[in-house]
């Protein structure tokens, strides 16, 4: 280090003696030999650092070390300078000798070392003689800090009855001294207060139980004092303490216990179900869920009359009335109640059963009670129009108390405002007081009151329902109109129809009907009636060989009788048709014409044949229509005579097909009219009379022209027999106003219409028409605006 920096500076210190110093050169370990008492330490030289003791309490500045260079010849020509942390304030240097001193006491826990820079310069020129060199001054630790518990005081818990060595908690103490130097920071733990219940590990600070079977019910809270001492616990070390509050948590190690074995309660016979009879409590030394108790009644004498529940707040057992008690029936009840823990700990099963039992005795108190009816309600039936005073039923009530007071009966007037009934006050029999009509009131609801003679305040009420029964007034009849048939191949004894009956009398359900043949019809050789006994009967064949040719319809009289009082009966006639059926007995047809159909031809086959015939007819009609359409002439018969046809008609038709429905000859030039033109909407007949020629172009009387045309249509036998519309419009010399168009105007010269093709797509068709006949007579047909004559012909 000295050779590289050209600074012959030796930095040293002794580890154990604060005031000792040493000097060094490049070639020798000591320059002063034995003078001054300085000796070489065993660990050798430590370069680039000094040591200074912390907490120095001397009056003089503490000597740190000495700086020296080989360039210093002792002639005071070299000056030493010091810079860096604490230079000038904490550390000072003698500029001539290079001795470094600490000006004040230092604390290693505040700052463990200081970094400084030293340099040797010429005292005259102040030029550096060597480059600046950096070194460190370390503050040497002394045991001046005691261990501290930063998280204390501590709180911990451990279950009661835990075995020895159960972990409780861990404490940790911190020492601010240097852990790498000596034993100043080596901490040892010990317990000062809390034995023999707990112990602490001297190295880790883990606290464990030291005594078995610690019972929370005996002592719940323990306060333990722990000491942490540095210097390995040796004499002279500093110590710190902390307190740990350890609580024993509860376990279920105690069973519930009743304070006494017998509990006495009383209950009145007038109490309602759910009334609280009393409370009991079993005490459990545990707490929390370990003290939760379930109460139950042990089956036995009277246990079914009561019930018990647990009050979750105070763990009391609440006894309530489950059923009504009666003093006259039973005067006392005795049963047992069991109290058991709800949450058991299997570790303590050996401690014995965690339950206890007590005896409950309940005495029933007598009360003056109202009379009691033998039934909760009564139902009675009576026929309408029953004579007055007829007894329809009776109610009974009695006093069950020990005094057994007589009972009197009455009808609550609010339930029988019209006084239809009356009751015997002593016997309780109910009779009619008015004529009853089912159609007016079918059911009466009355209330009977029973009163004790000895104590009229005690009364009871019961509901009585009186049904007014209907007298059998209406005879029975068929339930529905039946359409009965018998197959031609019906077998002997075959049921061909099941019949039932109905009756307008009430009730609709529960009626019984019987079916039979009338006495005069008992010798019927074709059919008979079999009564099934369930309000239905079957029509049974007595022979075979039914044929429609011989007889198509049979009529069977049926006598229906009900089971009412008095019995009503009626005779209904059942019509039976003879029909054809398939092999499974399904109906095919009942008409007589069907006899001549091929044998074995089913309905499906007939439908298929009809569909085929219809399809063939449709094909023929379509074919004829297509052929006829091809034979129709086009509207324009000659390219030489091209005109726009203006057609006006008021009837709805087939669109373009209607252009052939009228004679359009009059729309053309009268000079070009041909004779014997027929209508295009009908097929001409061979014997049709030719149509008379139309009015001449020289005719000036329009009215006469119209009349002539109407006459022609009236006489036309080929016209269709429906309303038709004929529109006649022509232009030319026949009009009084003469021609209104320039189409018939004579042109001296041929006009070239090629320019129409230059006007665009809209005039393409017009340019084609004019261009096609430009070399001929250029007789252009256009829309004619002239005199339009419209006639409507109403043919009936």
Describe this structure in words.
- The protein is mainly β.
- A hairpin with a 4-residue loop joins strand 36 (527-531) and strand 37.
- Mean pLDDT is 78; it is low at 1-47, 594-599, 634-642, 695-699 and 775-796.
- The protein is flat and about 170 Å long.
- Strands 33, 35, 38, 39 and 40 form a 5-stranded mixed sheet that branches.
- Helix content is 7%, strand content 32%.
- It has 4 helices and 42 strands.
- It is found in: Cell junction, Adherens junction; Cell membrane.
- Pfam families: CADH_Y-type_LIR, Cadherin.
- Residues 1-19 form the signal peptide.
- InterPro entries: Cadherin, Cadherin-like_dom, Cadherin-like_sf, Cadherin_CS, Cadherin_Y-type_LIR, Catenin-bd_sf.
Write a short abstract of this structure.
This protein is 7% helix and 32% strand.
Query: Could you give the distance between the termini?
Result: 146 Å
Which blocks of ≥5 consecutive residues have pLDDT under 50?
A: 1-47, 594-599, 634-642, 695-699, 775-796
The number of distinct β-strands equals 42
Secondary-structure-derived class:
mainly beta
Q: Count of DSSP helices?
A: 4
Mean pLDDT: 78
User: Residue share in helices?
Assistant: under 10%
The shape is flat
Largest sheet: 5 strands, mixed
How much of the polypeptide forms β-strand, as a percent range? 25-35%
Protein name: Cadherin-12
Organism: Electrophorus electricus
GO molecular function: beta-catenin binding; cadherin binding; calcium ion binding
Subcellular location: Cell junction, Adherens junction; Cell membrane
């Amino acid at each position: 280090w000295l050779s590289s920096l050209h600074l012959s500076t030796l930095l040293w210190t002794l580890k154990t003696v604060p005031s000792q110093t040493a000097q060094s050169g490049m070639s020798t370990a000591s320059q002063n030999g034995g003078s001054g008492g300085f000796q070489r330490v065993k660990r050798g030289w430590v370069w680039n650092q000094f040591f200074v003791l912390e907490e120095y309490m001397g009056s003089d500045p503490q000597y740190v070390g000495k700086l020296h260079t080989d360039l210093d010849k002792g002639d005071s020509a070299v000056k030493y300078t010091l810079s860096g942390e604490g230079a000038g304030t904490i550390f000072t240097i003698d500029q001539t000798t290079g001795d470094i001193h600490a000006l004040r006491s230092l604390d290693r826990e505040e700052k463990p070392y200081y970094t400084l820079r030293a340099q040797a310069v010429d005292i005259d020129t102040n030029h550096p003689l060597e480059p600046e060199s950096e070194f460190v001054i370390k503050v040497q630790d002394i045991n001046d800090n005691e261990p501290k518990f930063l998280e204390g005081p501590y709180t911990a818990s451990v279950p009661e009855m835990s075995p020895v060595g159960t972990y409780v908690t861990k404490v940790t103490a911190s020492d601010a001294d240097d852990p790498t130097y000596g034993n100043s920071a080596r901490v040892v733990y010990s317990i000062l207060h809390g034995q023999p219940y707990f112990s602490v590990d001297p190295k880790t600070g883990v606290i464990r139980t030291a005594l078995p079977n610690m019972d929370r019910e005996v002592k719940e809270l323990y306060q333990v004092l722990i000491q942490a001492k540095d210097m390995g616990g040796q004499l002279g070390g500093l110590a710190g303490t902390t307190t740990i509050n350890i609580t024993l948590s509860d376990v279920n190690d105690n069973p519930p216990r009743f304070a006494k074995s017998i509990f006495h309660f009383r209950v009145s016979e007038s109490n309602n179900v759910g009334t609280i009879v009393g409370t009991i409590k079993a005490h459990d030394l545990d707490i929390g869920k370990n003290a939760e108790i379930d109460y139950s009644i042990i089956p036995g004498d009277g246990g079914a009359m009561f019930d018990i529940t647990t009050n979750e707040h105070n763990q009391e057992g609440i006894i309530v009335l489950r059923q009504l008690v009666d003093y006259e029936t039973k005067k006392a009840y005795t049963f047992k109640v069991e109290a058991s823990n709800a949450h058991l700990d299997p570790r303590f099963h050996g401690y014995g059963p965690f339950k206890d039992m007590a005896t409950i005795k309940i005495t029933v108190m007598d009360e003056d009670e109202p009379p009691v009816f033998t039934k909760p309600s009564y139902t009675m039936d009576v026929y309408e129009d029953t004579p007055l005073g007829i007894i329809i039923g009776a109610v009974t009530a009695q006093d069950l108390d020990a005094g057994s007071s007589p009972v009197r009966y009455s009808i609550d007037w609010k339930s029988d405002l019209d006084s239809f009934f009356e009751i015997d006050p002593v016997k309780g029999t109910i009779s009619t007081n008015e004529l009853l009509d089912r159609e007016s009131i079918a059911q009466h609801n009355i209330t009977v009151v029973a009163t004790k003679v000895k104590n009229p305040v005690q009364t009871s009420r019961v509901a009585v329902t009186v049904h007014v029964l209907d007298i059998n007034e209406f005879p029975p009849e068929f339930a529905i109109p039946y359409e009965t048939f018998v197959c031609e191949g019906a077998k002997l004894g075959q049921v061909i129809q099941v019949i039932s009956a109905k009756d307008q009398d009430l009730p609709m359900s529960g009626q019984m009907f019987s079916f039979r043949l009338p006495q005069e019809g008992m010798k019927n050789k074709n059919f008979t009636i079999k009564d099934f006994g369930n309000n239905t009967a079957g029509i049974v064949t007595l022979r075979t060989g039914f044929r429609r040719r011989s007889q198509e319809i049979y009529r069977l009289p049926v006598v229906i009788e009900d089971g009412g009082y008095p019995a009503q009966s009626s005779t209904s006639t059942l019509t039976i048709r003879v029909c054809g059926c398939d092999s499974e007995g399904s109906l095919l047809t009942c008409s007589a014409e069907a006899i001549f159909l091929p044998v074995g031809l089913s309905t499906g086959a007939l439908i298929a044949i009809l569909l085929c015939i219809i399809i063939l007819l449709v094909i023929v009609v379509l074919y004829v229509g297509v052929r006829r359409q091809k034979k129709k002439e086009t509207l324009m018969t000659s390219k030489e005579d091209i005109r726009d046809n203006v057609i006006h008609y008021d009837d709805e038709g087939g669109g373009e097909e209607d252009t052939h429905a009228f004679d359009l000859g009059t729309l053309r030039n009268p000079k070009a009219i041909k004779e014997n033109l027929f209508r295009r909407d009908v097929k001409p007949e061979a014997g049709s009379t030719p149509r008379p020629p139309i009015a001449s172009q020289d005719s000036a009387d329009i009215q006469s022209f119209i009349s002539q045309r109407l006459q022609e249509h009236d006489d036309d036998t080929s016209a269709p027999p429906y309303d038709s519309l004929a529109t006649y419009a022509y232009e030319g010399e026949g009009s009084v106003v003469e021609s209104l168009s320039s189409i018939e105007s004579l042109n001296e010269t041929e006009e070239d219409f090629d320019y129409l093709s230059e006007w665009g797509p809209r005039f393409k068709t017009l340019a084609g028409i004019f261009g096609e006949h430009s070399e001929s007579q250029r007789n252009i047909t256009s829309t004619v605006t002239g005199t339009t004559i419209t006639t409507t012909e109403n043919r009936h």
